[in-house]
Amino acid sequence: MPEITFPEDLPVSGRREEIAKALTENQVIIVSGETGSGKTTQLPKICLQLGRGEKGLIGHTQPRRIAASSTAKRIAHELGTPLGEHVGYKVRFNDTLSKGAWVKLMTDGILLAETQTDPLLKAYDTIVIDEAHERSLNIDFLLGYLKQLLPRRPDLKVIITSATIDADRFARHFGTNEKPVPVIEVSGRLYKVEVRYRPIERDAVAIPTADPNKPVPKAVAAREKRDLMDGVVDAVDELCRIGSGDVLVFLPGEREIRDAAESLRKHHPPHVEILPLFARLSVEEQDRVFRTTNARRIVLATNVAETSLTVPGIRYVVDAGLARVKRYSYRNKVEQLQIEAVAQSAANQRAGRCGRVADGVCIRLYEEDDFNKRPKFTDPEILRSSLAAVILRMKSLHLTDVESFPFIEPPTPRAIADGYQLLQEVGAVDDNNELTPLGRKLARLPLDPRVGRMILAALDNACLTEMLIVASALSVQDPRDRPMEHQQAADEAHKKFADDKSEFLSFLKIWTWFEQAIEHKKSNRQLMDNCRANFLSQLRLREWRDVHSQLLTIVREQGWRLNEAPATYEQLHTALLTGLLGNIGFKDGEEPGAGYLGARGIRFHIWPGSYLVKKAGKWIMAAELVETTRLYARCVAQIQPEWIEKVGAHLLKKSYGEPRWEKRPAQVTAAEKATLHGLIIYSQRRIHYGPLNPREAREIFIRDALVGGDYDTRAPFFAHNRKLVKDIETLEHKSRRLDVLVDDQLIEAFYDQHIPQDIINGAGFEKWYKEASRDNPKLLYLVREELMRHEAAGVTTDMFPKAMSVTGIEMQLTYHFEPGSVRDGVTLAVPLFALNQVSAERAEWLVPGMLKEKVHLLLKSLPQKLRRHMVPLPDYAGKFMDRIHAKMAFGRGNLIDVLIADIREQTGIHVLTADFKMETLPAHHFMNFKVIDEHGRQLDMGRNLAALQAEFGRQARAQFQKMAEGTAPTGEGASGALSVPAAVALQAGAA
DNA sequence: TTGTGGTGT
Questions:
Q1: Which of A771, A791, A811 is the last residue of a domain?
Q2: Subset of residues 186-225 in chain A with CB less than 7 angstroms from any atom in strand B
Q3: Which amino acid residue lies closest to nucleotide B7, measuring CA to C1'?
Q4: How far apart are CA A72 and CA A87, in angstroms?
Q5: Is residue A788 a contact partner of residue A742, using CB atoms and an 8 Å limit?
Q6: Same structural domain for residues A464 and A542?
Q7: pTM of this prediction?
Q8: What would the pLDDT profile of A279-311 be if each residue is shown by its tens digit?
Q9: Is A867 found in the same domain as A986?
């Protein structure tokens, strides 16, 4: 062991005895202190001095890879040993540790991953969790894990380091509220920072609308932005007046950085260097921040400069107090990335960035009161994230349930339920929230569960080769660079990777391009230039390839087959869809700004920077949906709705409407509608309804097909029953009552009784009937008596004849019962040539079955003083009928005259024709005449015979003559029933 | 018409 020394100028060095003592006496201690205290580098050395690191490693975690490797290098350097020998680091894709090492720097993600293979973390005798106050998902998970582990590893020592303000929280977490674990506070070596509050001067112009439901009008948004830029410029001015020194300005995003850069450039002399700084900047652009020059530098940064990067030499800070914060919305299941006010802890961290080399000044662009009202801490990531991945990992580690896991701040039941729901959606857990075999496979993949699901689907779809490339691309940052100053050039360069239907395919094209670039490279330098010329980040390309090769290793270990034949669009995209079912969209309008309707009623738009923004089709899926100024879909591709049906079958909710009988397929169909998370995938699809609702389908089959008659069958019962019903219906019209035929329900009941329950369609019915009718041929035959109500028995052909003979010509009679209709009553079909032969007098008698009612009404129309001699009127009418029949006098003479004579005979009363009020009788008591031509076509119809004869009389006569001349000489006059001389004679007689 | 920063089986 080399000699261990401690740099005396670090605050932590002076407290090392105290720390060592606390660690000897306690299993867990908290060390709090601000940046510059030296805790990160010195703590492992204090542990070493205590003899730790011998039985097991001193594990030391950092939130970021860079920090892990640089800390390892520094400690190794301070111990005077080569990196990797006694002090090494392990991050993803890089492990420098040799066997006999004592100190292992690593990312917290690595330690978390190791719990999978080493659940008791036996490799370690001491663990330092650094920067615990950052409260990333990994850190919160580790803190819970360690809390559970401690009783089972009494020999394990744990040090948590944190910023001063939240040390207590950790102390209570590892101890109890009453007896927290010791906190050792080490001062930071920070200079004094003076904080000035310079709230933004709001423009005096009033904001026009106060409706909270309306979006902020553009003009107002623009004014607010200008106000912010004015505030930045004024603050920078104020700081520059204080003296020399570089300025760091915290802004929420790239856009604000660009605007501020523009405002400052207009305002400041050219020798001031204005440097943007955010994570997506190319390495070269970021490097400018670390090169110092003589000019004053104004660095415009996102919160990358709050924790991840330390900009050297900063004397002044301007804090807009804003940041974009990622939050997962459980309601819509989308991520939000909106600008929020930062917490006090973040504001203080920002201010601290100017106290590292000398006293500093920080200007906050908001009120002190505003600061004091802000929350103390940024919400930990676990309260802002989808928990699906966390739950999956916990399940595969066989940890206690999420519900009871000792999180520092446990997620809400609602968030947990949401996480389970997503896992169910991808099939990782079953209905009881237990891990499925598929879930176990997913847990083995170092990917978001949804991306992991795509890989498993790709295995089944024979597109794993392509999917590995796409899936790894989706889990790293986009390799495409789009520098602020060269956006158009970048877009132009990226065009060659574009595809008209899918942005996922762009990843494959970039991949191929890079493979070829590597293959044909002349030097590393040339490759780098090539990447730069194509606006691709070599760093991110490398990361992508690293993830890809890691996945490839797992795939080979599992023995999963890589396809050699190139996958089709459908193969790849249905596999992608398996993981993206929550991110589908349907364009429900043609106007340009319409956007897409998505799951759960959300509405989103394609990211404006997308190549497909104007050409994506009706149905799309998106790799991600993030709500910024609007809900935007990034990385989209066209899909077919049929794929959703196939891939999302387990999520489709189907409903059925309008069940109805269809004659041609001889089955009951219904309109099926399918929705996925409320989004209609299809509707109005006619499907066979029988299997879904056999009872209802059978009812409809009986009602509409068998009883309604909408059915094609050769089964004899059917024609028989139909005819029977039709006959009876004809009777109904004759008797002018609709209750002759029994109700349809009774006929339905008849079929219902005889047909087995499982008959739901034509095919099933025919099969059954064929068998069943063999033994019982009259099965399903309806019987006339059963179909008729007894009261209707009086309807006979004598009473309601089918035809009437007029001068030897048979004219058809039809009956219709429909009050108000022109056809109501009885209609006589009169051939044109015989029109003049029809006698109005005879027509007054109608048919025997209708006369009694007519007579009754005629009597009723008489004045009271006359009709009282005939009461009761119905009886008189009935007896009148009897007398007519007895005399065989039906149809003979004028009806009214005959009736007048009868009354006189029976009562001695003198009634005149004018006493009858004919106009009070309903229309159906007068014969309806239908004039037809020789082809049976109707020429006219009406009850006024005289009017018809006046109109058609001439034509009728001409046709009558023609027939008489044409037939008489050839001796064919007897054809039909026509006898011309007799007809002529009768006509004369009638006139 | 435009997205903060990290991490890994």
A1: A791
A2: none
A3: A109
A4: 6
A5: yes
A6: yes
A7: 0.76
A8: 888 888 888 888 878 889 999 999 999 988 888
A9: yes
